[in-house]
Amino acid sequence: MKITGVDILVAGAGWRNFNFLKISTDEGLNGWADFSEGNVGGIIAPLIRKMGEHLIGRDPRNVVPLMEEVRRRNYGVAIGAAARAQGPIENALVDIKAKALGIPVYEMLGGAIRNPIRAYWSHCGTYHANNWELIGQEPLRTLDDVVKLGRKVKESGFHALKTNILMFDRDIPYMYGPGWVGGNGDRDRNPTRAVIQAAIDHMSAFREGAGPGVGLHLDTNFNFRMEGFLRLARALEPLDLEWLEVDNFDPTALAQVRQGTRTPIASCETLTGMKQLRPFLDHQSVDVVITDIMYNGILDSLRMAALSDAYDINVASHNYAGPIGTLISAHFGAVVPNFRVMEMDYIQVPWAYDLLTEKPVVENGHMTLPTGPGWGAEVNEDAIKEHPPVDAKPGPV
Fold this sequence. Notes:
Blueprint: E1 3-12, E2 17-25, E3 30-35, H1 44-52, H2 63-72, H3 80-84, H4 86-101, H5 105-108, E4 117-121, H6 126-130, H7 132-135, H8 143-156, E5 160-164, E6 166-167, E7 174-175, H9 193-210, E8 215-219, H10 226-235, E9 243-245, H11 251-259, E10 265-267, H12 274-282, E11 288-292, H13 293-296, H14 298-310, E12 314-318, H15 323-335, E13 339-344, E14 361-363, E15 366-368, H16 381-385
Parallel strand pairs: 4-13, 5-8, 8-9, 9-10, 10-11, 11-12, 12-13
Antiparallel strand pairs: 1-2, 2-3, 4-15, 6-7, 14-15
Helix pairs in contact: 2-4, 8-9, 10-11, 12-14
C-alpha cells in the first residue's frame, strides 16, 4: 500500500471552518483527520501539505517510523504551528492502519476500557449568545436565560458543562475575551471588578438551573495574567466549580494559582508533546491536564496521558476541531486509564455531523463508541461541497 495524495478539504461551520485532512492510498483506503487553524492565520494547512509531500509513495501503515521522520524534519520548530501540523498527519495514518486491519482504532490500541464515553457540554451559552441563529437556538439574553439553559443541560443528562465569561452590561450579551485578537475586555488583561462579578453572576445562574449535581467548568483562555486568574479563582470558590480553565505557558506561575485557591485548575490544551507538558507536572501546576489530540496526534497524546498518569493526574480531551475530532476524542477516551472527560460541542451548526457517513450516538451526556474500522466513519465529501468556507472569526467563537 502506498500513499498517493495528501489533501485539505474545508467546510464552512457558521462562524468558523471545519478543516479536514485526507490521506489517500493506491488501495482505496483513505485516512481522515481534522484540525483547527486556531488563530494562526491559516498557516497550518500549508504546513500539512508541505510535510505530506515526503509521504507520497510511502506505506501509511508504518505510522511510527513515518511520524518519527516527520518530527525529525521539524526538530527546530518543536512548538507552535509546525508542531500542530504534525498531529493531523498522525491521526490520518492511524485511521488507515486500523482500516487496513479492519478494526476500530480503539481496538488497535488495545481495546476499550469504557463505553460509552463521558462527555461535557462545551461552549454552553457562549454559542447561544453570539451565534444563536447559526446554531438554530433561541438567543441567550439574560441571566434568567442562563438558568433555563442550565436546566436543559441537567435534563440532557450531561454531568458537566463548560462556558466562557459572558457580560450582560450591554443590550446584547457578549463574551469577555481580551486574550484574543478582536476580543472584548481590558486590553491589559487586568482583573476588573466588573468582570469578576459578571463571572460570579454567570456561574451562579448556571448553578441555579443545573443544580448541585452538574459540574461547572469556566474557560478563561488567556484573558488574564496570574493575578487575575487567582482573584477570579478565589471569588468563584463558593460555587464549587469542577474546574477553572486557564491558558498559560509558565508552569511556575500557574502553580501559584493552583496553590492559592480551592478551585481546581485545568490547563495544557495549548501544549504539544511530553517535553512541553512535563514542567507543568513537575511543578504540580494543574489538577487536570487537557490534551488536544488533533494537534498532538492520538499516539503522542497517549504518551502525554501516560506521563500524566505517572504523576497521578487525570486527562481530559480538548476538541475545538470538527466532527472527525469528536470521533478521535472518543477513541482516545476509550483507551486511557486516567481519563476524566471528553469535550463536545453538543449544540453547534445543525449540519456538522451531516459531513460524516455515520453520525455519533450521544445519549445522557455519553457518546457510544463507533464500531466501524478506523475512526468509524468517513467524511462525506459531497456534503462538504454544500457548505463553502467562511471568513472565520478570531477566538473560540
